[in-house]
């Protein structure tokens, strides 16, 4: 009788496994066989999730006994090439959209900077961290904080320059706005430029942004509803709970974006599975 391992809270939940399992590509058996059996997909995914959640090095997986580092990383690269992690996020949005829960009426766009000590693709000098290497992620969410779009750039890239790419990165069809169903895009002062206003007009969005050089808005009372822009800041905070994303150790852009897509998929699916 085998030993049953106790769930330590770092493994993929059953419900999420049922959602991602059909997306995994099938690998044919080697014609000459193999002396080492292939690591089960779920075990490899548990190892990938452990790296994502804790920020540990791939090599540290060996000490956990969960999965060999080379097996987990090899499977991660295979699934990255097959587009599994982005599709996992997209399927979560489709399920959430099917439940009519995406609130297209209020969209929030914001960017945040993070450290990238090893440098690599899509990194640059961070103007808020003594010009050390850093990265920026630009995120679009609805009013509930569900991630709808994401792009990555160097930390020295202005937020407003990523607005178009972030809107174009939405993996599901955005309904066209109308007079009865307007779509408002909430941004901060970093987007208060003419290109963003022209972009909002092109996409049929009502831009809600502070005016540069204008007076500060009065302090909100407790009865007044705050701007939905705080929802995107909360989603950035959710992403930082995945410690692999708080400090970027990936030199390659595709591996870093794949980690982001995996985290976005987890956040989206948890929203979709919550009772309405």
UniProtKB/TrEMBL annotation:
<dbReference type="InterPro" id="IPR025161">
    <property type="entry name" value="IS402-like_dom"/>
</dbReference>
<feature type="compositionally biased region" description="Basic residues">
    <location>
        <begin position="209"/>
        <end position="227"/>
    </location>
</feature>
<protein>
    <submittedName>
        <fullName>IS5 family transposase</fullName>
    </submittedName>
</protein>
<feature type="region of interest" description="Disordered">
    <location>
        <begin position="115"/>
        <end position="138"/>
    </location>
</feature>
<feature type="domain" description="Insertion element IS402-like">
    <location>
        <begin position="13"/>
        <end position="88"/>
    </location>
</feature>
<dbReference type="Pfam" id="PF13340">
    <property type="entry name" value="DUF4096"/>
</dbReference>
<dbReference type="GO" id="GO:0006313">
    <property type="term" value="P:DNA transposition"/>
</dbReference>
<feature type="region of interest" description="Disordered">
    <location>
        <begin position="207"/>
        <end position="227"/>
    </location>
</feature>
<dbReference type="Pfam" id="PF01609">
    <property type="entry name" value="DDE_Tnp_1"/>
</dbReference>
<feature type="domain" description="Transposase IS4-like">
    <location>
        <begin position="107"/>
        <end position="260"/>
    </location>
</feature>
<dbReference type="GO" id="GO:0004803">
    <property type="term" value="F:transposase activity"/>
</dbReference>
<dbReference type="InterPro" id="IPR002559">
    <property type="entry name" value="Transposase_11"/>
</dbReference>
<dbReference type="GO" id="GO:0003677">
    <property type="term" value="F:DNA binding"/>
</dbReference>
């Amino acid at each position: 009788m085998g030993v049953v391992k106790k769930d330590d809270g770092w493994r993929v939940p059953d419900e999420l496994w049922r959602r991602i399992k059909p997306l995994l590509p099938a690998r044919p058996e080697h014609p000459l066989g193999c002396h080492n059996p292939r690591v089960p997909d779920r075990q490899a995914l548990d190892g990938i999730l452990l790296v994502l959640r804790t920020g540990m090095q791939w090599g540290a997986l060996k000490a956990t006994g969960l999965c060999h580092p080379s097996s987990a990383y090899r499977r991660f690269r295979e699934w990255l090439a097959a587009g599994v992690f982005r599709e996992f996020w997209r399927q979560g949005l489709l399920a959430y959209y099917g439940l009519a829960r995406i609130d297209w009426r209020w969209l929030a766009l914001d960017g945040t900077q993070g450290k990238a000590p090893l440098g690599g693709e899509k990194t640059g000098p961070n103007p808020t961290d003594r010009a050390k290497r850093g990265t920026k992620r630009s995120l679009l969410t609805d009013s509930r904080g569900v991630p709808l779009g994401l792009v990555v750039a160097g930390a020295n890239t202005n937020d407003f320059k990523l607005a178009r790419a972030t809107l174009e990165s939405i993996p599901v069809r955005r309904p066209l706005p109308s007079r009865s169903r307007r779509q408002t895009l909430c941004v901060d002062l970093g987007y208060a430029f003419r290109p963003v206003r022209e972009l909002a007009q092109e996409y049929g969005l009502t831009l809600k942004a502070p005016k540069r050089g204008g007076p500060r808005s009065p302090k909100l009372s407790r009865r007044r509803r705050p701007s939905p822009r705080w929802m995107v800041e909360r989603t950035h905070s959710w992403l930082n709970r995945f410690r692999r994303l708080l400090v970027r150790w990936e030199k390659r852009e595709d591996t870093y974006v794949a980690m982001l897509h995996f985290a976005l998929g987890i956040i989206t699916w948890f929203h979709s599975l919550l009772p309405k």
